[in-house]
Task: inverse folding
């Protein structure tokens, strides 16, 4: 290939990359502008008085779903990466988690409604909703946690073992701290999945416009509130306002998480 032909090829690829970047950033910008422009008009004292309890419901759901899923995912990954001897078993788990990560959330909602709401008798409650969403994000967490831990150089663990640390101690004092930013990024992605979930929660948490005061209470999250307002044509502007509040809450949580980790990996 001539020098001129090579330059044309490189220039074309560069132009396509820039075009894709402009499309992505432009699309996101339009979405944010639409939400901010239509939502900010309905944010007032009356709206905030009604939406703050729903925001508290959302934060409770996030807390309990992560509480149920993160420890299980982390222990499962540590076993798969460090202790599992059968490569075939590990491949089966990875394949299964990949399949489950792609299952539509409504399927998890049906399973949660049948298992937690009816069979176990939890009813439409925060407990049933949290367990259902925990099952939903568990496969995703397992895959991302595994990638995060595998990204830590093996020399870190080898150095700890050579200094006399046990395998378990090396994992918890060296490997996990070294991968904490990647682990936290995975948790933030799972958090985004939780706060945006609607279908599974309608079947397990319910749509009651009430404040959740205990784990057995029913209520609605911001995403369910947006769905109800838009579906029943109660107030599309308030649905936009709820979306704006949700975006701000996620932004603040991500900013706080970034500040807590210093914004970088630590060995």
Result:
């Amino acid at each position: 290939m001539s020098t001129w032909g090579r330059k044309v090829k490189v220039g074309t690829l560069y132009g396509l990359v820039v075009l894709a970047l402009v499309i992505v950033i432009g699309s996101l910008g339009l979405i944010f502008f639409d939400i901010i422009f239509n939502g900010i008009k309905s944010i007032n004292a009356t709206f905030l008085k009604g939406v703050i309890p729903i925001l508290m419901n959302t934060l409770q759901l996030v807390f309990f779903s992560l509480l149920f899923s993160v420890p299980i995912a982390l222990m499962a990954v540590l076993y798969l990466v460090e202790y599992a001897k059968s490569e075939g078993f590990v491949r089966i788990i990875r394949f299964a988690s990949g399949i489950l990560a792609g299952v539509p959330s409504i399927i998890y909602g049906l399973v949660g409604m049948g298992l937690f709401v009816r069979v176990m008798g939890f009813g439409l409650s925060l407990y049933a909703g949290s367990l259902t969403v925990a099952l939903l994000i568990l496969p995703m967490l397992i895959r991302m946690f595994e990638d995060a831990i595998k990204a830590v150089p093996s020399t870190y663990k080898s150095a700890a073992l050579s200094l006399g640390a046990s395998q378990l101690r090396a994992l918890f004092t060296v490997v996990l701290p070294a991968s904490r930013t990647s682990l936290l990024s995975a948790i933030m992605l799972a958090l985004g999945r939780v706060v945006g979930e609607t279908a599974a929660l309608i079947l397990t948490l319910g749509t009651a416009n009430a404040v959740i005061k205990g784990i057995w209470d029913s209520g609605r999250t911001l995403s369910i509130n947006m769905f109800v307002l838009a579906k029943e044509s109660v107030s599309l502007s308030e649905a936009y306002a709820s979306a704006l509040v949700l975006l701000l809450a996620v932004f603040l949580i991500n900013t706080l998480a970034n500040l807590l980790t210093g914004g970088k990996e630590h060995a």
About this structure: DSSP finds eleven helices and no strands in the chain. The first helix runs from residue 3 to 39.
